[in-house]
């Protein structure tokens, strides 16, 4: 289910979406760090991630300030040489 990746974080604004994803993953869900919250306000340690996979979230952000906050977080949280997929 986690395709060999061992350090995974999932963030979603919707507690319901997180609950459904956890249920879908079954026992594999325990290996994931789950975060509820708004991506435009989320705090991550600098260079925390090697891969940032946006699963159709950025297009929800229609206000320039929210898009700016999002990009700031990607730039801070993805380590140099990492990848951001959208
Ligand atoms: C198209 S769905 C993708 C669902 C699921 N993540 C997946 O990969 O199949 C987009 C998700 O973005 C979440 N979302 C929308 N605005 C958000 C925000 N500001 N911060 C975090 N998540 C947000 C929604 O709750 C929704 O679950």
Characterize the structure shown.
With 86 residues, the chain is an alpha/beta fold. 29% of the residues lie in helices and 27% in strands. Strands 1-2 form a two-stranded parallel sheet. A two-stranded parallel ribbon has the order 3-4. The two termini are 20 Å apart. The mean pLDDT is 95. It binds S-adenosylmethionine (SAM).
User: What proportion of the residues form beta strands (DSSP E)?
Assistant: 25-35%
Question: H/E element string?
Answer: EHEEHE
Main sheet: strands, sense, barrel: 2 strands, parallel
What is the 3D shape? Answer: globular
Report mean pLDDT, rounded to a whole number.
95
What ligand species are in this complex? S-adenosylmethionine
Estimated radius of gyration: 13 Å
How many DSSP-defined strands? 4
| Helical amount | 25-40%
Strand line-up of the largest beta sheet:
1-2
Uncertain segments of ≥5 residues (pLDDT<50)? none
Q: What is the terminal separation in angstroms?
A: 20 Å
Topology overview:
Elements: E1 8-12, H1 15-25, E2 32-36, E3 49-53, H2 64-77, E4 78-85
Parallel strand pairs: 1-2, 3-4
Give a quick set of tags describing it.
two-stranded parallel sheet, about 90 residues, single chain, binds S-adenosylmethionine, alpha/beta, two-stranded parallel ribbon
Question: In short, what is this structure?
Answer:
The chain has helices at residues 15-25, 64-77; strands at 8-12, 32-36, 49-53, 78-85. The protein is of the alpha/beta class.
